[in-house]
Design brief:
Layout: E1 5-7, H1 9-25, H2 29-41, H3 45-64, E2 74-82, E3 85-87, H4 93-105, E4 117-118, E5 125-126, E6 134-140, E7 145-152, H5 154-157, E8 161-165, H6 171-178, E9 190-197, H7 200-210, H8 217-223, H9 228-241, E10 256-264, E11 271-278, E12 284-289, E13 317-320, H10 326-329, E14 337-346, H11 349-360, E15 373-375, H12 400-409, E16 414-417, H13 423-431, E17 435-438, H14 444-448, E18 451-458, E19 467-481, H15 488-502
Parallel strand pairs: 1-3, 2-6, 9-10, 13-14, 14-15, 15-16, 16-17
Antiparallel strand pairs: 2-7, 4-5, 7-12, 8-11, 9-11, 14-19, 17-19, 18-19
Helix pairs in contact: 1-4, 2-3, 11-12, 12-13
């Protein structure tokens, strides 16, 4: 039997805090390198520009020590605790981990957005420090504590899917039927984690755990699959990319950078399958505590990040939000790139609900929406000389239920968010000759550099969900739904699915990409 290792409680707390600060600023190097390769071979201009923004944002965050995404995630932690370890504390392991989360998210030099709400089916009150984490613990042989930790964005987590298939059903067919219905709110290109077997909760846990592994799909293709699970990974990688969804759902060659699968024995009558995506803000790391002090996390070298300069051609339109007319908006077409200047409002779920409640009661709004654009965002708090912290878009479909009312009763003319809009929102946009513009999810720090002024103008008690007024300069967006109701999230993937089918050699065949 190995000797007992004493782990200091403070070392565990500090290691968790350091790891969460680390992953807020640094993509895993394997992700950056894989995304860079996808960018190099991408043929869709819109998707290529979106990936360029993500890569530029990643390098900026590494240099500026600020969050990759404004959604700094819900903390998910897997701990393998050696049975020959002891922690010098009367507190429970979960209490120590949550103290590390608390310290990480309230760090004054790099404030991380608190997104966790207690009483989820009731008052939904923000806990203020992003606790508690979702913690999974295993007791294993050994005298160390091994921890894998991730910060999981809500947009990608909301696209998780679970099915209890019949044993004779095809997992491959279910995945290929499911992915298109997930839309683009999970901010592709990213990874798909798949869990097969066990029970419903075990399949979901396997899928989440698989996302902690490094990207290695090209290495797998080069050496060849050794079993059915590895064959399935390769098949799904190619077939999902053949769907043409592309970066941010704009249409293109790369929808996923890897497909991860873990399986577990299951009941003879069952075939549980869970699918969980990781977004373009993939954030995870691993460390081990062995009793010698807090774990060290080593930042990637700046040379590991590609240097990419964003450029705009003569087709890009500069738009003054303070004077833009419906006649000017009517000229915009899906896929057009705009550089926004002037004043816009912000608002997310909680603010939208309050605005609608006021309208329903016939009460005045705290700020006029007449002829205004609203940006779906919950920014990170600023530090040092920042006007605002990272401020990327949130998933627009969550605001669909409010869209028609705000367009018709409040005079709103435009919206900015990420991913697609639903049929009802598109119909409301068409009926009111409004527009929906898309900013790149996963480029939050880059977007924040375009914001010159930020002021809370309504509902300050909502914290990051308060209504701000932003003054922006050359904020890049793509026209996603035009005033005629045409959506690039419909036309883009359809176009690229057809193009991929006709291309020779096959552009998504993994053996041709290695």
């Amino acid at each position: 039997m190995s000797s007992v290792t004493l782990i200091r409680a403070d070392d565990l707390v500090q290691s968790v805090a350091d790891a969460l600060q680390f992953i807020s600023c640094y993509h895993p190097v394997d992700f950056i390198q894989s995304l860079h390769k996808a960018w190099q071979r991408e043929e869709s201009p819109a998707a290529r520009d979106a990936m360029a923004q993500i890569l530029i944002n990643s390098r900026m965050c590494a240099m500026g020590q600020r969050p990759i995404c404004q959604d700094t995630g819900i903390v998910v932690l897997f701990a393998e605790v050696g049975m020959q370890t002891r922690i010098d504390t009367d507190l429970g392991l979960e209490d120590l981990i949550n103290e590390g989360v608390r310290q990480a998210y309230t760090h004054p030099d790099n404030i991380l957005r608190a997104s966790i709400l207690s009483d989820p089916a009731g008052q939904r009150r923000n806990t203020g420090d992003n606790t508690p984490a979702v913690i999974h613990v295993r007791l294993v042989p050994g005298n160390t504590i091994d921890i894998r930790v991730a910060a999981k964005g809500g947009g990608s987590e909301n696209k998780a899917r679970l099915a209890m298939l019949n044993p004779s059903d095809s997992v491959r067919d279910w995945v290929l039927a499911t992915v298109p219905g997930m839309g683009a709110g999970w901010c592709p290109p990213g990874m798909l984690g798949i869990g097969i077997g066990g029970t419903a909760e075990k399949a979901a846990l396997l899928a989440k755990e698989s996302l902690m592994d490094p990207i290695d799909i090209h290495e797998l293709a080069q050496r060849g699959p050794a079993n059915r699970i590895e064959e399935l990974r390769l098949e799904l990688f190619e077939e999902v990319n053949r769907l043409g969804i592309g970066a941010q759902g704009l249409g293109g060659l790369s929808t996923v950078l890897d497909v991860k699968i873990k399986d577990y024995p299951t009941h003879a009558a069952s075939l549980p399958v869970a699918l969980i995506p990781n977004c373009a803000a993939t954030r995870h790391t691993h460390f081990t505590l062995d009793g010698t002090g807090p774990a060290a996390v080593t930042p990637p070298r700046l040379e590991d990040y590609p240097e990419i300069a964003q450029s705009h051609d003569d087709s890009v339109r500069r738009v003054d939000l303070n004077t833009v007319s419906r006649e000017e908006m009517a000229q915009w077409k899906p896929g057009d790139t705009l550089l926004l200047n002037g004043s816009m409002l912000t608002g997310r779920d909680a603010a939208h609900k309050r605005l609608i409640d006021l309208l329903n009661r016939g009460e005045p709004l705290p700020v006029s929406l007449e002829n205004r654009f609203i940006y779906y965002v919950g920014p990170v708090d600023p530090v040092r000389d920042e006007v605002v912290g990272p401020a990327g878009p949130t998933t627009a479909t969550r605001m669909d239920r409010f869209t028609r009312t705000l367009l018709e009763q409040a005079g709103l003319v435009g919206m900015i968010g990420k991913a697609e809009r639903g049929a009802a929102a598109i119909e409301a946009i068409k009926d009111n000759k409004a527009v929906y513009l898309m900013a790149v999810g996963g480029a939050a720090y880059l977007v924040s550099q375009a914001i010159r002024k930020a002021e809370v103008v309504a509902f300050p008690e909502l914290g990051m969900e308060a209504v701000y007024e932003f003054e922006v300069e050359d904020m890049p967006v793509t026209v996603a739904v035009d005033s005629q109701g045409q959506s690039i999230h419909t036309t883009g993937p359809a176009l690229w699915r057809a193009k991929i089918a006709q291309m020779s050699p096959d552009p998504v065949k993994i053996t041709s990409q290695s």
